[in-house]
Design brief:
Length: 451
């Protein structure tokens, strides 16, 4: 059995009578069949939760029941599955606050009143019966895990688990440290490289380290082309250099070269013709005759004040250095982060939003902030900061739960839970998300680097 953190969004009918819904929800509808007990099964996969849980309209109620069903079948769970790494991290952060209530449900055999969806209550209640022995065992384990800051939570509560499966690369890498904390020594498997436009590839070596993780392109999934991207320095003026990706003529699947950087172009069976995904990838090698791609970054995700171009990859590298320092100095985790360019000041400056597990001292926060700003590698940014053409980077700390509010905002707009990824750069036109962030700022500081 598997604890599958799946959430199937409701579909609606188009004017022509066709079903309309998100990619992942439609796939789940097509793949899932239900056995006589009311539980789902996809081939050899048998989720612990009944189908009604996956189809619940309320994310928090569904998550609670996923955990409850997973604990009921604790000795039969073979692996954990989610679309993205951050879904797992977010789920287990929630588990830290609901475990006692889960134990109470198992002990009494009665589902918590927090689950108000009638179809969910009915389906999960069929699985529940008073189990005080199991509840006490889980309670003791959770008390011990809490004293160890929940390190090794997954293998401790589900001892038969072999691995954890989710997309772990790209923007998900920032959550890897926390997931490893929960997973202990379990294998973390990143299995697919996919987009709404189609599946690009699968991992032929799923247990590779994240640094060497690559995905073998599925040549039957569509017609793929690759635009070579050559990084060159362009002289803007006497005091500044700008680094740009210069595009070359697209090449075919068999014409890519190992070590080179490309943007992916797909022509798919749904009718998209030569569609630029906006994904920048690196060719690490070949699996048989098909190239293995490593995701590098989103091409259009940049922080930009003047001619500087700080990419998602640059932002992630700076985050890694600052978060390691923060964890080393005061054992503080970064729950989530995003950024924006603030042009309301003169000169304009970068703003980084952090949600933290708890607030560190001002001295440590300032030290981490300076580390963050000095980690940016973009030549134009460094020159503009040195010459005071870009203002000092500002770090704003938001209260706990802020990024959950952003998630709920996107969910209210119809975004699929399975496909949601925290945006790493917020456009100035996205006033709703910027307001959520600004309304929840609890502390801030400016970088003192560069004088």
């Amino acid at each position: 059995m598997v604890i599958w953190f799946q959430y199937i969004a409701s579909r609606h009918k188009a004017k022509g009578g066709l079903d309309v819904g998100s990619l992942t929800s439609n796939l789940f509808h097509q793949l899932l069949s239900y056995n006589s007990s009311g539980q789902e099964s996809t081939g050899k996969i048998q989720p612990c939760s009944p189908k009604e849980v996956a189809m619940a309209h309320d994310y928090q109620q569904a998550l609670y029941c996923h955990f409850l069903c997973g604990l009921l079948y604790y000795d039969r769970v073979q692996f954990l599955l989610a679309s993205f790494c951050h879904q797992l991290v977010q789920a287990f952060r929630t588990f830290e606050s609901i475990w006692e209530e889960l134990c109470a449900d198992i002990r009494e055999g009665v589902l918590s009143e927090r689950v108000s969806d009638l179809s969910v209550r009915a389906s999960v209640s069929k699985l529940l019966k008073p189990s005080p022995v199991l509840a006490d065992a889980i309670y003791r384990k959770c008390k011990l895990l809490k004293s160890k800051n929940w390190s090794g939570l997954i293998p401790e509560l589900w001892p038969q688990t072999k691995f954890v499966k989710a997309i772990l690369t790209g923007s998900m890498e920032s959550y890897m440290g926390k997931l490893r904390h929960y997973a202990g020594e379990l294998a973390l498997v990143s299995w697919v490289y996919a987009a709404s436009e189609g599946v690009i590839g699968v991992s032929a070596r799923p247990r590779s380290s994240i640094e060497s993780m690559a995905y073998a392109v599925g040549p039957d999934n569509g017609y793929f082309e690759f635009i070579p991207l050559i990084k060159r320095q362009v002289v803007e003026d006497e005091e500044s250099l700008e680094e740009l990706y210069v595009e070359s003529k697209p090449v075919r699947l068999t014409e890519v070269r190992v070590g080179e950087i490309y943007e992916v172009v797909i022509t798919n069976f749904a009718g998209l013709y030569r569609y630029r995904l906006g994904d920048v990838v690196k060719v690490l090698g070949f699996y048989n005759s098909t190239p293995e791609l490593q995701f590098v970054q989103r091409k259009n995700m940049v922080l930009n004040i003047r001619t500087d171009k700080t990419t998602e990859s640059d932002l992630q590298l700076a985050m890694d250095k600052a978060s390691k320092l923060l964890l080393l100095e005061e054992k503080v985790d970064i729950v989530d982060f995003t950024s924006c360019g603030d042009l309301s000041t003169d000169p304009g400056h970068y703003v980084i939003f952090w949600e933290l597990s708890h607030l560190p001292s001002k001295e440590i926060l300032q030290k981490c902030c300076n580390c963050f700003d000095q980690s940016f590698a973009d030549v134009a940014y460094i020159n503009h900061r040195t010459n005071r053409l870009i203002g000092a980077l500002e770090l704003r700390i938001v209260v706990k739960g802020t990024f959950m509010r952003i998630f709920e905002h996107y969910q209210s707009l119809g975004c699929s839970i399975n496909q949601f990824k925290t945006p790493r750069c917020i456009a100035s036109s996205n006033t709703a998300v910027l307001k959520i962030l600004d309304d929840n700022v609890t502390a801030s500081c400016f970088i003192t680097a560069y004088g």
